[in-house]
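Deliverable D5.2: sample structural annotation.
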Amino acid sequence: MKTLLDTEATVMYLPPDRSMLQKPKPDFKALLAGQPLFNSLSPEEIARITQNVRDLRPKKGEVLFNKGDDCKGLHVLLVGLVKLFFISPHGHEKVVEIIRPGQMFGEALMFLERSYVVSAQALADSWVLYLPKTTIFEELERSPVLARKMLASLSMRMHQLISDIEDYSLHSGKKRVIGYLLREIPSEALSSEEHACDIHFSISKNVIASYLNMTQEHFSRILHELAELGLITVQGREIHIPDIRKLQRYED
């Protein structure tokens, strides 16, 4: 399957927020400097990294790379959503991770200098910066700060994957769905004195179900059960949680 990196097509500039609508082209230095991974670097270091940056604008459904492709760099997601997945021998899709804005992906295989073990596909119209590994390796030689940040990011990703495996192995489907719903609640809602909130599924239920290691039918059935318990109400992709604390305290 052809990927976005296989083409040199020019893409139209789509800024991440309205304040940048008047800019004629992306300011890659400012964009990278605003990302957690690079925000401690000096302007000179940022300038070196952005010399060879690729500006990718995958449309919804477009593939960034396929399992088995050579990994020649890392990706930083600025806008949109990207899923990392593989297809089982029986043809079933398994979503390994959902990448959100501010996260990087592909870095582990870049360091190992191996081929991708998963595929990456945009779940929405997205904006991705692609940094070649030669550029990253050269900067890592110069910057211990960047090296520590990349190690921290990899460690956090590994911790989350281990946590996911624990959920799949030890927790019921209902607890997994509740955990996902709680992670989707905005931080300001969690800290607010208001106990109710609304969340929106920005990705399809079948993708969420695959990520939670269950079928779409099982996922929908659990949402229905939670609604019968009065813990949520469901209207399409809109989920209303009348009492966050009650959902947090729920036990099967």
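Annotation notes: The chain is about 40% helix and 20% strand. Residues 4 and 74 are 14 Å apart (CA to CA).
The annotation will be released with the project's public dataset once the embargo ends.
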